[in-house]
Specification:
The protein is α+β, with helices and mostly antiparallel strands. Helices cover 40% and strands 28% of the residues. Helix 2 crosses helix 3.
Length: 132
């Protein structure tokens, strides 16, 4: 999850570009399908958000060349939960314990595959704490 990802209509997108309109008080995010490299997908969308972040409007601008990938979506959602759990947990709590609490016996990925991601999240958390 190197860049920011967002999810709409069971598709995931990377934020490609961002524009701010100060007169109208809104932000426009231009999105690309997160599967654009794997499937050469041209799926695109536009997300408009008011300056308070309350009102959001998503408009697909180019169709996808593949159906929604529900396994990828489940993995994305699971990684978001794991990321939050690692950020919220004390650094002495083992990553495996966090993984088991979040997965509750059902996970789209094995611990050994996701543990490097969790370690990066924890390292970033520790770095931010030291720098702050």
């Amino acid at each position: 999850m190197g860049s920011s990802m967002v999810e709409f209509d069971n598709f995931t997108y990377h934020i490609h570009n961002h524009r701010t309109n100060l007169k109208e008080g809104k932000h426009t995010f231009y999105l690309l399908c997160s599967m654009r490299n794997r499937y050469k997908c041209k799926g695109r969308g536009k997300l408009e958000v008011d300056s308070e972040g309350d009102n959001r409007s998503f408009t697909p601008t180019q169709p996808h060349n593949h159906p929604p990938l529900l396994e990828e979506l489940a993995l994305h959602r699971f990684k978001l939960k794991l990321k939050k759990a690692v950020e919220d947990a004390d650094t002495i709590v083992p990553l495996r314990t966090i993984f088991e609490e979040v997965s509750q016996g059902s996970s789209p990925v094995e611990f050994k595959e996701i543990s490097p991601f969790m370690a990066r999240v924890r390292k970033k958390k520790e770095y931010v704490r030291v720098v702050s």
